[in-house]
């Protein structure tokens, strides 16, 4: 069977038109599956906004009393997660997931959790407990000053 030319365009066969239409439909279908929260930046290694890089007095990130032992607190406006793996031991990490740049949403059962694709990080060191995250959360040194968590 030979391909018949479509319309008046020489060299364009019916098969070419059908194949191109199927490919276009496939692209539309596949891109429709990729819906992400694009309101956040792509993964980054830059310091969270809670970090004081000016050398001046550090501003408060959160009250130490608000960070539960064995858990943590996500401070979304500063893109920081503060954890307290053991009583009196506070750790700080960026809240930006290393997979797709989403902001992590919760700290529960010993992990920092990203809502976008299910990545989980350890509250002890920010290491990846469950992917698809490719790298640990960047650490942000913190200290307690007058009952407040501040960047160290």
Instruction: Report the biggest beta sheet as strand number plus sense, adding barrel if it closes.
Output: 4 strands, antiparallel
Q: Indicate the radius of gyration in whole angstroms.
A: 24 Å
Query: Beta fraction of the residues?
Result: 25-35%
How is the largest sheet built, in terms of strand order?
Answer: 5-6-7-8
The gross shape turns out to be elongated
Could you estimate the helical fraction of the residues in percent?
Answer: 10-25%
Order of helices and strands: HEEEEEEEEEE
DSSP strand tally? 10
Pairing-aware structural class of the strands and helices? alpha+beta
**What is the multimeric organization of the chains shown?**
single chain
- N-to-C CA distance: 76 Å
Mean pLDDT: 78
Number of helices: 1
Uncertain residue segments: 27-56
Summarize the structure in words.
The chain has one helix at 14-32, and strands spanning 60-63, 71-75, 80-86, 89-94, 106-108, 111-113, 120-122, 128-130, 142-145, 148-151. Helices cover 12% and strands 28% of the residues. The radius of gyration is 24 Å and the shape is elongated. It has 152 residues and is of the alpha+beta class. It has one helix and ten strands. The longest helix is centred in the N-terminal third of the chain and has 19 residues, at 14-32. The strands form three sheets. Strands 5-6-7-8 form a four-stranded antiparallel beta sheet, with no helix packed on it.
